[in-house]
């Protein structure tokens, strides 16, 4: 499979590209916003595309054409305003879903955030972020695509150990970004997670086993 | 009909309540956020309810119970940040749609903004606002309710003259808030605008005629 990784320069996206390229089973196409970000991924042997998520659906679709799956790992990040939360985390995600449909890419893995599917779980400081993520997730769930939505808990930079808990409604917890990336890569090969949305934190089960039980 | 006006203290909402009460054909129930806003509407003989759109769907549904139609004229306004655009213009609107379904109120008139249904029309300074309004509109269109979405052009405080143009895609233009309010009140009695979304600016046609032709 060729896997388009949108938000490849992000902390999770980068590890997804690295793992796909290292594993060698699939190939990654890294989507980044800035020209100076390209060479890192070219050095990994990945294909690349320069796309601004604030651009048109057509721009994204043309990068997606010929891919077999899309991983959406982009985010406006904590350093920008809530206007960018709307334009990237909500509208950018939805445009990518529409681009997948236009380009005929059926498989779509979304990186969301723990608990955003339940409004009563939205923590007050980042309520607007939770809302943006939630509505992007709902759009994907209604898209007709073969989606998987991962909702990881608090992200850490610890080394991953490949052990998780995955479930519809989990208590808050933490997970290394590396294990989120591991779970994304595993999800690409796991049919049982198609049409599923689930919370994800560090735990006791091997990733593949945990995904199979969903 | 009893018409629940959400955002009654806003510049359009206020005129909607006034016109409904003056006309005497229907009755208005004014939904406001602050206690000191209640007396103005009580003096008009309108029912009132105190609801914070950042609260729960259930709060809104309990205010909506027993109404026959909802007018959503709320907005976070230009003085707050984009986080409130997400929480009021997007999530508040969507919660009100869900509350309408919960409360069994089938008729829903939404005040949107010109051109937000086409991403290429979003003007760059308020792109995030356009996105929020757009996704709220899409949610309503998919809700199964008897919706009407009015997308007025630039709002002025001029006196209304009851003359408009209404159409799926209009060039940018202006319209007095009073004529938006007149159009909302007329739309409540006009079956031909059910399941319709349209741009709205000042023009040459009487409101009722313009609505009938949609």
From TrEMBL, chains A, B:
It comes from the Bacteria. Signal peptide: none annotated. Gene3D superfamilies: NAD(P)-binding Rossmann-like Domain. Residues 7-190 form the NAD(P)-binding domain. PANTHER family: FLAVIN REDUCTASE-RELATED, UPF0659 PROTEIN YMR090W. This is Uncharacterized protein YbjT (DUF2867 family). It comes from Alkalicoccobacillus murimartini. The lineage of its organism: Bacteria, Bacillati, Bacillota, Bacilli, Bacillales.
């Amino acid at each position: 499979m060729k896997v388009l990784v949108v938000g490849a320069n992000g902390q999770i996206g980068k590890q997804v590209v690295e793992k796909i390229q290292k594993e060698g089973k699939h190939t990654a196409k890294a989507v980044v916003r800035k020209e100076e970000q390209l060479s890192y991924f070219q050095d990994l042997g990945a294909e690349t595309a320069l796309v601004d998520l604030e651009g048109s659906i057509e721009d994204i679709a043309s990068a997606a054409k010929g891919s077999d799956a899309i991983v959406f790992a982009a985010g406006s990040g904590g350093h920008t305003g809530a206007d960018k939360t709307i334009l990237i985390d909500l509208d950018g995600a939805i445009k990518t879903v529409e681009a997948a449909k236009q380009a005929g890419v059926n498989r779509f893995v979304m990186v969301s955030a723990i608990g955003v599917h339940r409004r009563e779980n939205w923590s007050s400081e980042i309520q607007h972020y939770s809302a943006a993520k939630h509505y992007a997730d709902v759009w994907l769930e209604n898209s007709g695509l073969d989606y998987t939505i991962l909702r990881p808990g608090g992200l850490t930079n610890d080394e991953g150990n490949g052990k998780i808990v995955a479930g519809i409604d989990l208590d808050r917890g933490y997970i290394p970004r590396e294990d989120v990336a591991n779970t994304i890569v595993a999800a690409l090969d796991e049919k049982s997670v198609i049409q599923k949305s689930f919370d994800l934190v560090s735990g006791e089960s091997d990733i593949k086993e945990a995904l199979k039980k969903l």
